[in-house]
Write a structure and sequence with these properties.
4-stranded antiparallel β-sheet; globular
Length: 248
């Protein structure tokens, strides 16, 4: 089945600073509905800064350029408005929320983002289906969010949340970090399910995730700039040769 087309995210000449320090220097990027874009780069290249500024983290200041989501300027939207508009960010280091049970957290998240009252039965059926897909035991629901979770459990928790929220744009910041082979496979299956008819910005260091989640376009980011764009073969070149040959 061919993927739906249409500009989902348009970034032009983006400049971003953190506490007065420039991090991103004139970045351009367009993601269409149905496309998976992977961004690779060394630590400190600006990948996570891009993810955070897209979701509206207050520590990141856009000093120049435009970011449009479905044609609307993101600067005009608060974090919760971005989520309601269809954006989702998974964190490189998911936070622990002691005292908040997973089941309650997911139900309230879905209700808040959708803006609709969902019947308990409908929610339970949808949640059960998604948990089955990710091979998550029902005991997971009574635990506190990420409290005592392993690295793999934290990442599956985020993918479960993404599946339940069904975003138009998933921004995934090193979701593969710290996962063993089995956990990586389950997380990748969840990503493929969630992004089938949506868009995805996938930040990763490793080819192993891109073997399971096939990117349409791969970008390499160095010193706050995209220095190279290509197809999936570019990720293999980076895996084999590192980043030195792409230095500007």
């Amino acid at each position: 089945m061919s993927k739906a087309k249409g500009n989902l995210l348009e970034i032009s000449n983006l400049h971003v600073s953190v506490e007065g320090t420039p991090i991103i220097h004139g970045l351009d990027l367009v993601i269409q509905l149905g496309e998976i874009h992977a961004i690779m780069g060394r630590n400190g290249s600006g990948k996570s800064t891009l993810a955070n500024v897209l979701m509206g983290h207050p520590a990141y200041e856009i000093t120049d350029g435009n970011v449009l989501f479905f044609g609307q300027n993101l600067v005009d939207l608060s974090v919760d408005e971005r989520a309601k508009a269809g954006m989702f960010l998974s964190f490189q280091y998911p936070m622990t929320i002691p005292g908040v049970q997973v089941g309650n957290f997911l139900r309230k998240s879905v209700s808040a983002v959708s803006g609709n009252k969902i019947s308990a039965k409908e929610f339970r059926l949808d949640l059960k289906e998604k948990m089955t897909q990710l091979q998550i035991d029902k005991s997971f629901l009574s635990r506190y969010v990420n409290d005592g979770f392993s690295g793999g459990e934290k990442k599956r928790m985020e993918i479960l949340q993404m599946l339940m929220l069904n975003p138009q744009l998933a921004i995934l910041d090193e979701t593969d970090s710290g996962l063993d082979v089995d956990a990586l496979r389950l997380v990748a299956e969840g990503i493929n399910l969630a992004t089938k008819d949506a868009g995805c910005l996938l930040i990763t260091h490793y080819q192993r995730l891109l073997d399971l989640v096939k990117p349409d376009i791969v970008h390499v980011m160095i010193d706050g700039r995209i220095v190279k764009t290509g197809d999936a073969k570019l990720a293999l070149e980076v895996e084999n040769n590192g980043y030195d040959w792409l230095e500007v």
